[in-house]
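Rotation project, supervised by the postdoc (A.L.). Task for the rotation student: set up a whole-complex structure prediction and record inputs and outputs verbatim in this book. Inputs entered:
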Amino acid sequence: MQTKPRYAVFGHPIAHSRSPEIHLAFALQEQVHISYDKILLPIEGFSQGVAAEIQAGLQGANVTVPFKLDACEFADELSVRAQLAGAVNTLVVRDDGSVYGDNSDGLGLMNDIEKQYGVSLQDLSVLVVGAGGAVRGILQPLLERNPKAVSVANRTVSKAQELAHILDIEALSLQDASLRQFDIIINGTSSGLSDQAPDLALAAFEQCQLAYDMVYGAKPTAFMDLARQGGAKQAADGLGMLVGQAAVSYQWWRGFQPQTESVLQSLRASLC
Ligand code: ATR
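Outputs recorded:
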């Protein structure tokens, strides 16, 4: 009997992950049987755990918090994207057993912004709020879309300056960003996890076509509420990014490009 191709997501914690249902829905579209497990690894046991799964036949994996940096070190080769992000969220096991590390987070976000929200990033001004790991993961794919300008603003401005220096973009304090206008504002801070929004003035959203929060939940996030109050035309959460990054990973593993819309709809319905 032929065994099913095996994939997994590694994290700690991992019980909350929606990745299995997303990837199994993609496999249905491709009309193949795969397995996709959630695997909880001990904080200090990433390399050992992943190596054992690869030995047992794993063909690819997603990697989530807190292992994205460990995955960078584990991979035999890294994409430029992953090197710039300093983080790997996708491992591809090649036929020769070597492991390629890449990062689909930024591409997933860009695809969601363009396909779901109909916004072409080219020639628009973009403010990215935050300067942690989540933001590092998206900046290179964002710059590849050729926006007119990209600025990064952070509560601790020195961290925004460090990132901006690497990528040759503008760094701002939240106060300075509040005095400016942007076509797109992306919230890449973790403020939403504590039901807060970064301290931006309402006026910053007046000309905003799309305010995008990279986190998601059953209800609109505090950042989305702030953006709507400030006059943003559209406000989005990061559920589409979650499905989008999964679709890119799936394509890297299997060469099949899944449709995201129906998967996103059923995931959204299950959150309510
Ligand atoms: P992640 O991997 O989710 O990016 P991180 O690397 O710890 O997590 O970074 C968290 C980011 O969210 C930082 O930019 C942080 O700002 P500081 O550098 O000033 O700490 C930002 N952040 C978290 N809570 C915030 C809040 N309530 N308001 C504004 N920014 C916040």
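Student's summary: The chain has a mean pLDDT of 96.
Supervisor addendum: The radius of gyration is 19 Å.
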